């Protein structure tokens, strides 16, 4: 993973994903903001990945380069690979199985990319494979140690991604069925520990947003963002499955998919049902989400031939890894051969299957262009220690320039931001305003024209397919003392 982090960093791809930028900057705002603290974790995105970044994101160099998040992701993906190896090795009583399964998962170029940037997949797979390992161990021993490990890992997962919430009742049912003694006590213990994650997030949303389900139905939720925007698969189970399966094929390649299917059938014939169930639940969750919950997936091979949320197809890799491990149990030669076949497609046509990197590069072109233009202008026009009133989604400008968030006033700084928007003549005092057309900050600048303070448009940045970015400088109508 160290080599992967360095490679993507050297190519400039660490922060291509808009979400990667957002995750990194959420963590930074907890320690660097006009209003620092727990509230900066916000809503919608779960907090654990951001909390893991805190020790590193304080460092200006690691923050501005994105390495603060990349290092955390790499460590989490390494941990995920360790638990996957341990779980498959224990399940099949085979070291070659562990190596083959881990290789097929970890050496997939999409795993290497998402494990090298500030995204949530690495932390989620670390928790998922820890649950896998500890539940397999619990099935063998019914020990309290294995139960505690599974519960803690499941709790970590619920504070990382919402699909972990979906898995909780199934894991609890496994504990209930497989406990050799004190079934009720052990199941309740698991539920109390693992369920603490969702309860904490519900409490967070209730405390800061007056609605425990604000993350689900608030203005930044997936449901709100996709409201009124139809997409393929919405309300159509067959089409939802088709788009998700196509994304999985593009991400893993047909050889790996075929090996995974054959291996899973082989594992099922040996009555290895729990790991199959655990890993199969992830694709089920996403197909259900595409159908019902406002989660579109676009792939370049199906209309409308776009790139969006292809990374969700990573949900197929645990099943493929498990199937690979099942076949590789027949010896070292089998393990090497099956892993080579599964990974060979990436050596022959690596760019065709690095779909998460392609999506990030394709969808970030406009954002990277207006960010670069804004940075060039401000470096020539703005002085040190000046302050900025800013609209939504512009943090890449400040991170690129190393401007502390405590020198910016944004929608993450309430009630200060709302006060500045509603009464700019009283509460807006920044040297600069950077806005996008139609956002709340733009409206505040328009309102300020009536009663002050006066801001003069210095730069307008127009990039095809992107909102217009406008940069205003405050004009002082009296001499400064």
Characterise the protein shown here.
This protein is mostly helical and 481 residues long. It has 2 domains: 2-361, no CATH class; 365-474. The chain is 65% helix and 5% strand. The protein is built from 26 helices and 5 strands. It has helices at residues 2-10, 18-31, 48-57, 60-65, 67-92, 95-106, 109-114, 121-141, 144-158, 163-178, 183-194, 196-209, 214-217, 222-226, 237-252, 254-269, 273-292, 317-328, 332-348, 350-353, 355-363, 365-381, 395-401, 416-422, 424-427, 440-451, and strands at 388-390, 408-409, 432-436, 455-461, 469-474. It has a 5-stranded mixed sheet with strand order 2-1-3-5-4, with helices on both faces. Helix 9 packs parallel to helix 11 and helix 18 runs antiparallel to helix 19 (332-348). The longest helix is centred in the N-terminal third of the chain and has 26 residues, at 67-92. The protein is globular and about 80 Å long. The mean pLDDT is 93.
Number of domains: 2
Which regions contain 5 or more consecutive residues with pLDDT less than 50?
A: none
Q: Summarize the amount of helix as a percent range.
A: 55-70%
- For the biggest β-sheet, the strand order reads 2-1-3-5-4
Q: What is the number of helical segments per DSSP (H or I, 4+ residues)?
A: 26
Q: What is the gyration radius calculated from CA atoms? A: 24 Å
């Amino acid at each position: 993973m160290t080599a992967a982090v360095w490679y993507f960093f050297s190519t400039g791809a660490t922060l291509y994903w808009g979400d990667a930028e957002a995750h990194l900057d959420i963590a930074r705002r907890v320690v660097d903001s006009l209003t620092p603290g727990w509230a900066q974790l916000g809503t919608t995105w779960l907090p654990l990945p951001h909390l893991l970044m805190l020790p590193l994101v304080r460092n200006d160099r690691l923050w501005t380069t994105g390495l603060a998040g990349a290092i955390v992701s790499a460590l989490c993906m390494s941990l995920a690979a360790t638990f996957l190896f341990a779980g498959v090795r224990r399940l099949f009583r085979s070291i070659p199985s562990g190596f083959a399964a881990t290789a097929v998962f970890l050496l997939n170029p999409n795993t290497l990319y998402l494990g090298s940037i500030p995204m949530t997949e690495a932390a989620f797979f670390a928790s998922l494979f820890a649950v896998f390992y500890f539940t397999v161990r619990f099935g063998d021993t019914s020990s309290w140690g294995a139960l505690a490990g599974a519960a803690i890992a499941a709790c970590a997962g619920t504070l990382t991604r919402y699909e972990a919430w979906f898995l909780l009742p199934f894991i609890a049912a496994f504990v209930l069925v497989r406990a050799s003694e004190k079934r009720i006590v052990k199941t309740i213990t698991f539920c109390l520990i693992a369920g603490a994650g969702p309860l904490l997030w519900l409490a967070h949303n209730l405390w800061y947003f007056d609605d425990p389900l604000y993350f689900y139905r608030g203005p930044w939720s997936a449901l709100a963002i996709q409201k009124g925007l139809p997409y393929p698969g919405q309300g159509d189970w067959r089409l939802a499955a088709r788009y998700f399966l196509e994304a999985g094929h593009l991400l893993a390649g047909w050889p790996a998919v075929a090996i995974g299917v054959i291996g899973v059938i082989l594992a099922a014939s040996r009555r290895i049902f729990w790991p199959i169930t655990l890993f199969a639940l992830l694709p089920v969750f996403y197909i259900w989400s595409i159908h019902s919950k406002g989660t579109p997936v676009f792939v370049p091979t199906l209309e409308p031939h776009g790139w969006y949320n292809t990374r969700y197809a990573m949900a197929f890799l645990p099943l493929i890894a498990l199937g690979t491990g099942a076949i590789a149990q027949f010896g070292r030669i089998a393990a090497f051969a099956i892993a080579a076949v599964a990974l060979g497609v990436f050596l022959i046509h690596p760019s065709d299957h690095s779909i998460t990197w392609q999506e990030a590069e394709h969808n970030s072109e406009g954002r990277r262009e207006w960010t670069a233009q804004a940075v060039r202008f401000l470096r020539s026009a703005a002085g040190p220690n000046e302050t900025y009133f800013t609209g939504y989604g512009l943090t890449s400008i400040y991170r690129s320039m190393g401007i502390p968030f405590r020198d910016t006033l944004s929608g993450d700084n309430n009630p200060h931001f709302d006060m500045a928007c509603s009464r700019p003549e009283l509460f807006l005092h920044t040297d600069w305003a950077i806005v996008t057309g139609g956002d709340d900050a733009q409206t505040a600048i328009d309102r300020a024209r009536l009663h002050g303070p006066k801001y003069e448009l210095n730069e307008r940045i127009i990039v095809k397919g992107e909102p217009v970015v406008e940069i205003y400088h405050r004009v002082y109508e009296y001499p400064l003392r």
